[in-house]
Write the structure tokens for this entry.
Amino acid sequence: MSDPAARTAAEPRRPETSTPPADTRGRPVSRRVPALVLFLLAPLVGELLLGNLPLGSPSTLAALPVLTLLYGGGAVLIREVAVRARRGRPTVVLLALAYGLIEEGLVTQSLFNPSYATLDLHGYGIVPGLGASAPWALFVLSIHSVWSIVVPIVLVETLYPCRRATPWLGRPGLALMSALYLLGALAMGVATLFAEWFGAGPGRLAGVAVLAALLVTAALVLPRRDRAGGGGRAPHPPAALAAAALAGGSALFLLYHFGASMRMLPAGAVTAAMLVLLVGTAAAVLGESRRAGWQPRHEFALAAGAILVYAWAGWLVQIGQYGAHPVGVAVQCFLVAAAGGLLLAGRRRLAALPTGRTVDGR
């Protein structure tokens, strides 16, 4: 996806004034408001809309605080680091990938546990020496990077365009958010350890930590690019981008479902297809975002298409894992409707902006 702050990379940072920037209706918006919304939205998209928890069970309510600390804290921190470093979406994506590695490789260790939760990956695409299933690793790291982190960030920045290119937290807020994220990771790790009684071993854990550190380093040394530097044809229309995101995300879910879940496809073929899909999608989005005329509405279209993937895939996951229980079905219906309302709100915000600009003129 494109850079939200790249156009202002060479400009001096505007100081915070006593009067907060206004939204599209002229109402002042505190910088803490979008931070709080992102903090709450990330777990709702990353876990609940996906249907990854038994929505009719009290255990889900008990897990929500920990998931909010982990997902929400991670999303806000990643967004703040990228904006403060005056870098754009490539940095966000690499940091999101590091986040996924930390969660699935260090916290829950699901990358190395073929029996994690409802998984049954024994003998399916296990990479010798690593003990990780290649289809599962590609799938879970992709959904964490895109749906748990990048998509919520894009949606919240769309809802609050006046705060799109500015930090949302001061130093005390960053320190608090870091502590909340670490607390969530610790709580999730301890809960998973007692539930699974599985340990990946120090060698694998060290490897994940090194790889995550390399991703963070790479994210922060990316050049500060000017989003307007592209040329050639204009980006594809937002509707086409949304359809492409829906198709690509749906293909990823179907590959995993018919492969790792149902064992109807060989692991090698699923792994190869996923790699082609993910690399091709990343290259296509990067190429589009570098073209002249790339605007927030194009970015929002990609996020909207991704949300629509979870809108249907959540049913597949929820019913497939937990059955069609009335409460779970009702909650899933509410989540899908809420996601639709969120997309409509984002579309209205974009329609109220001058073409190609946010309300603060950026």
In short: The beta strands are 126-127, 132-133. Confidence is low (pLDDT under 50) at residues 1-18, 358-362. The first strand starts at residue 126 and ends at 127. The radius of gyration is 20 Å.
